[in-house]
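Quick one: structure tokens for this chain, please?
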Amino acid sequence: MNGTTTGMRHPIATANVALLSLVLLAAGGGPVSKLFSRPSPTSAMTTDGGPMPMNSQIPSLAGATGWLNSPPLTPSGLEGKVVLIDFWTYTCINWRRTLPYLRAWARRYEKAGLIVVGVHTPEFPFEHDPENVREQSKKIGVDYPSAVDSDYAVWRAFRNEYWPALYVFDAQGRLRHHHFGEGGYAETERVILGLLAEAGRKQLEAGPAPVTVGGFELAADWSKVRSSETYLGEAGGDGFASPGGIRARNQHLYVRPARLGLNEWALSGTWTVTEDRVRVEKAGGRLAYRFHARDVNLIMGPATRGGAIRFRVFLDGKPPGEAHGLDVDDAGNGVAIEQRMYQLIRQPGSIGDRDFEIEFEEPGAEAFDFTFG
């Protein structure tokens, strides 16, 4: 059953996610940019005791509620393999940008004894729906084995706290490396090669595995990102600028202010704001955000499965033209037919503070989260 209709509460959005940021571009002290998401200390997903210590034995995967691309895998069944465990969720832009590397390693080193195993732990309510996970994993190219961790049992067994997060175990099942967030690709590949050699694998191909990136998977231009992930809804209402503030859980006619400050957002038209989302109730409702980044992504979709909601995107009040994202045309037109991340803006030129706005031509769309790149 779709998570949007079960009343199931998403533990990240309801706990008001604490966003961790890292400083990139160490030379010259570049901008602070978010590389991963993590639950807050009050979330049901938090774990006790800190990260899993090095040399720990690989935890059980028995808590998975299902599997993709494979029958259930067990630690005993993985003996003798170098194992890379990757925690993901299909709407996470930070994880999407790591996917080309995971695919490349899985394909290049499989015959040498590496197995890449994903663990899909949901962030938003609709990601609990196994059909959604199955459909989206096919569309975005997750072709290696992946556990479906809808009850967070595997997440807790690994004492994990991040998306994305990867753990590399040697052929004896001992943890030898972990990495949280984007990046660290060269180091992780060196660890994989070292553990394969340690396990006696010979004739490994020289040089890094070839990786092709593009679309959603293109790395962020961190030097130009001044906007960070923004959760919509009552729990993530920081930066909300419509006069009168959020009127939670009831339909309300909102008005957009004449101007938005950087990283402020607003609604106009008739909307319902609940704890973890905003839902447009009448045609013509608009959602606006003033941002500074190359890309604007919005996690959204129809509230009911099978819906199709037309929308139009504007950049500084005009159609985006060549700055349109993958999910809209140059006039800004698009259709939301499933709950996922939509890329709405990708600017090809200089980056500055810009006004983004999306107008929904029918009621029934829900929006959860803005991300940027």
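The chain has two domains: 3-217, 222-372.
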